[in-house]
Structures
1.
Amino acid sequence: YEGEFSNDGACGYGIYHHGSDTTYEGYWNDDSQESYGIETWKDKSQYKGEYKNGQKYGVGIYVWPDGSMYEGEWVDNSLNGYGIYYFTNKRAYLGEWKMNVKDGFGEFIWPDKRYIGFYVNDKKEGFGIYYWNKINKAFVGFWKKGKQDGFGKFMTNNKKKFGKWKMDN
């Protein structure tokens, strides 16, 4: 550790090297990461953002070695609150998170389709709209555990079907 001390602990600005695996550069309080910092790992993943009591807490950006990235809110080292996750294959999720999973209202975007609606424990659940961009096809209705389940409306250019779905059927 190189930096400021108070009462025999890191306090203020400093840089900590954990062997050759991890480096943290930022602010400390009572030997814990606090306020703002940048943490970089050997595999090239990196977090830039806020800390509280040594945990990612507040707003931050995390980049994984494969290039995927999350920008948003954190609580106790977990994606929690509103955030945007960019996948490496041109997909993205913009919405609410709870303990690292999609939970609440959000929008999932693929290159050729889109879902706007609610999630529970990483699965589509509740009301949502799913549509395919290039073929003018959509489902508007209810979901359960990631499947169309409940009342809904399926539409294409020349066809409409109203009804009740049960686990995608």
2.
Amino acid sequence: MFLYLIRHADAGDADPTQWADDRQRPLSEDGAKKFRQAAKKFNRLVPSVDVVLSSSLVRAWQTAKILEEEAGWIAPKRFEALEGHGEGEVIKALKPYMKHERLALVGHEPTMSAMVSFLIADDTNRSIVEMKKGSVACVEIDSLQAGTGTLKWLLTVKVMREL
């Protein structure tokens, strides 16, 4: 299986005067624009996936919807395990989806980097990769066992826009 781990696009800084509940913080105008440009080009590398699982926090959900609209991916499904839970909870919740060949997760830091670190190095105590806002990591896995995945690539929004 190819597992695509996507960190939500840029949402600017948390600002409690605008969003008392940070779960409601949307993508910034510039973040959405750049990710739309990237998603259009990213479609050339990954034209489709079988399932898109996303956090329902506004900025992650907007990122998943951009992938649907611009990359032509299928509509996202809410995946509660990506809403502030650690990689252990995400791994448990992914088990029913292991039959798919291409699975995408759209979420937040530190979970996205921790997932990559867990899958490729069985290490979540230090950062193995840096998942910048809007970046996508492709990890090839046969199981959800720690340290058994292979990082195929990691792309930033800037690189995707240049594809």
3.
Amino acid sequence: MTELEKLLAGELYDYSDAEIAQLHGKAYYLSMKINNNLSFDNLEEMKLLQKELLPNMDESSTVLPPFRCDLGFRIKIGKNVTVNQNCTFLDNAPIEIGDNCLIGPDCHFYTPQHPFDYEQRRKPVEKSLPIKIGADTWIGGNVTICPGVTIGERCIVGAGSVVTHDVESDTMVAGNPARVIRSLKS
């Protein structure tokens, strides 16, 4: 099994592998072209570059630059989603954003998980765990979502939160680590 196949399967992989580095380089190049070389005067070119970087983003959605990601093709963005500026999606595992979500500025979605054993951490290895955000969820500004977290539908995550565990649908969470503030059920 190649290192890329291990990455795609959610297994421990060597992130210094040349094939993985090439894919990261392509995403970095496209991100930098979108972030640094375009103005809002040329939205058509920016949309074409974003489609190349994020082929699984619905056309009705918006990702404001600057935006950074590891691969791009592992990110799925549903309909009518807004990802505000300066977000980072480390998508070595899938990141799925449901329809009608609002992602505030400066949010970070981290799928990579380094080994807990310090000797193994000295090696260039990690595994990645998927992140899933349910429909109609609002992620406030400067939120960090950790590897393997699922946030249900119709949730609110307060600004500045660090989400380390799954969040049930119709729940408001906030804090570091994020904890339940209240139910949003009527």
